[in-house]
Design brief:
Blueprint lengths: L3 H24 L8 H5 L21
Length: 61
């Protein structure tokens, strides 16, 4: 029964920390644009560099 006197304050501190972290994240704009990262993976990549193409003088890179 004595452990409840320890666990209740610890749980209240953890709940308080979680609420503070959530409101800090909302206030700092963490949840403003949730779709941008998902659309970034569908964007075209820049063309790869062709390392086999000869340079000036016939030498390769």
């Amino acid at each position: 029964m004595g452990i409840i006197l320890v666990l209740i304050p610890i749980s209240l501190v953890l709940i308080g920390f979680a609420c503070w972290a959530f409101f800090w994240a909302v206030g700092s704009g963490q949840f403003e644009d949730l779709d941008a990262q998902a659309w970034d993976i569908l964007a075209e990549d820049e063309p790869a560099v062709d390392f086999e193409r000869p340079t000036r003088g016939g030498r390769r890179c």
